[in-house]
Write a structure and sequence with these properties.
This protein has 290 residues and is mostly beta strands. It is built from one helix and 20 strands. The chain is elongated.
Length: 290
């Protein structure tokens, strides 16, 4: 279970994590490529998924700087609300860091005008929660959180549980809402071959991660569809799912159109229905886009 954080409710602090994949559990491009949502920088620097030296969850990230160049892993977060929202606001960045060399590894917040750096890791081969706070410059054009390894020697270090929040303090890691998987379901009663309709107006941009169909009485075949903002002009989210009575059936594992635009509708398009079908229960999982 991830640990939550505490916050005042006076508008000066907001406990919502502005970073995606702060627990470094997602590596969709591969275990030796920057984790989802993050960018690697530094000539000769390498990053890898780590399964042994971890602080939170299943994985941490291992970063190695080269002898002549620093290593940086960073993430921009201003796109969540736009850079104008963050100008003049104070944000705090924290991350668990493990290092065996003193005064070489730190974190900082950069806002394209200047930056603020944390203290260095003491190099005692233990996990320390480094934090840094910065008020974003009113002339900033972007803001990023950076994990930094110095270039004076080749250094291997590990990091986990990255979080950035509005306010002057952060207490522990909590996942971003964008990393949370949500579930919705709807029931079509007495479905027929013409049981096509928009069923849910999507209030924000989402990505569908899985679709499931459960049939009662008799089986149907159909698709989850994305309709436009008026509930018209449908397009398939994935290929047909062939239902089985009283047995859950999943999508084929590769969705053709998982991204659903804010303000559009999701619904169902029935390809065929067997006489006697009484219910079709359609469920899907999704994440909220940035």
């Amino acid at each position: 279970m991830k640990t939550g954080i505490l916050s005042r409710q006076d508008g000066k602090e907001n406990p919502t994590n502005l970073l995606t994949n702060g627990d470094f559990e997602l590596w969709s491009s591969g275990a030796s490529v920057a984790p989802d949502g993050w960018t690697l920088d530094g000539s000769g620097a390498t990053v890898a998924r780590e399964q042994s030296t971890i602080k939170i969850g299943t994985y941490s990230a291992k970063l190695i700087s080269s002898t002549n160049n620093p290593a940086e892993l960073y993430q921009y977060f201003n796109a969540t609300r736009g850079i104008n929202y963050f100008k003049g606001r104070t944000v705090t960045f924290g991350v668990w860091v493990w290092a065996s060399v003193a005064n070489k590894v730190s974190i900082f917040i950069s806002d394209s005008v200047n930056g603020t750096q944390s203290s260095y890791h003491p190099g005692d081969s233990a996990w320390h929660f480094l934090t840094v706070t910065r008020t974003i410059d009113i002339n900033a054009t972007d803001v990023r959180c950076v994990i930094y390894g110095a270039s004076t020697s080749s250094i291997t270090f590990y990091f986990d549980g990255a979080i950035c929040v509005e306010g002057e303090s952060v207490f522990a890691f909590s996942p971003s809402p964008k990393d949370t998987i949500y579930t919705r379901s709807f029931i079509i009663t007495n479905p027929t071959a013409t049981a096509d309709a928009p069923l849910w107006r999507v209030p924000y941009a989402i990505t569908i991660t899985g679709i499931h169909l459960l049939c009662k009485g008799a089986a149907i075949v159909g698709q989850l569809w994305e309709y436009d903002s008026n509930g018209l002009n449908g397009s398939t989210v994935d290929a047909d799912i062939t239902g089985v009575v009283d047995t859950n059936v999943n999508d084929d594992g590769s969705l053709s159109n998982p991204g659903i635009a804010s303000g559009n509708y999701l619904g169902w398009k029935t390809t065929s229905a067997t006489v006697g079908a009484t219910q079709a229960i359609v469920s899907f999982e999704y994440t909220i886009n940035g």
